[in-house]
Amino acid sequence: MIESMDWQQYASCRGLGVEFFFPERGSGVSRQVRRICGRCYVKDECLAFSLKEGGFERGVWGGVGERIREREMYFEAAS
């Protein structure tokens, strides 16, 4: 488990509703979410958290949608 979750206090999405980040499966990442994540200082930490911790298959993490993260996890497991 990642020792510190302090990065979350700096997230651009802090305080926003989760509905933006958990779209219907297959609908992709919205432009609004891309803008929010695109300017976020901790998007790398957010993405790393979702990949390392597991159990976060759904939603958008670090500006990256489910399909791309699934591919990343597949290639990481295969190597």
Automatic annotation (TrEMBL):
Keywords annotated in UniProt: 4Fe-4S, Disulfide bond, DNA-binding, Iron, Iron-sulfur, Metal-binding, Transcription, Transcription regulation
Family of the protein in this entry: Belongs to the WhiB family.
The organism's place on the tree of life at top rank: Bacteria
One Gene Ontology term from the biological process aspect of the record: cell redox homeostasis
Lineage, opening ranks: Bacteria, Bacillati, Actinomycetota, Actinomycetes, Mycobacteriales
UniProt cross-references to InterPro entries, sorted A to Z: 4FE4S_WBL, Whib
Cofactor or coenzyme needed: [4Fe-4S] cluster
Key word Ribonucleoprotein present: no
PROSITE patterns: 4FE4S_WBL
Residue stretches making up the 4Fe-4S Wbl-type domain: 12-71
Pfam family, one: Whib
GO CC annotations on file: cytoplasm
Entry protein name: 4Fe-4S Wbl-type domain-containing protein
Keyword Cell wall biogenesis/degradation: no
Localization: Cytoplasm
GO molecular function, one term: DNA binding
